[in-house]
Amino acid sequence: MLRRRSIRTKLFVALALLSTIVIVLAMSGFWGLYRYQHLASAISQRATEIPHANDINRIAETLRDSNSRINDMAHNGGMIDAALFDNPLIDIERDRYKQLLIDLDLHVDLYANVVGTGSSDKDNLLVDVVRQRKSLDEIRQSVDSLITFHRQPLSIDYGHKSELGKRLDSLVELTHDHLSIIHGGMAVFSHDVRGEYRTWIGIAWACTIVAIAMVVLLIWSFHSLVVKPFRTLIDGSRLVARGQLNHRIDLGTGDELSELAAALNEMTNKFQKAYSKVNSLCTDLDRQVRDRTREVIQNEQLASVGFLAAGVAHEINNPLATIAWSAESLESRLEEAVCMLNGAMDEEFIAVMRTNLKRIEDEAFRCKGITERLLDFSRLGEVRRVATNLTELVEDVVAMVSKVGKYRCKTLRTHSNGAAMAHVNPQEIRQVVLNLVTNALESVDTDGAVDIYITSDETSASVIVQDDGCGMSNDVLKHLFEPFFTRRRDGTGTGLGLSITYRIVSQHGGSLVASSDGEGCGSRMEVLLPACAENEDNPTLSRDTLRWNHEPAKAA
Question: Rounded to whole angstroms, how far apart are CA atoms 127 and 123?
Answer without folding.
Answer: 6
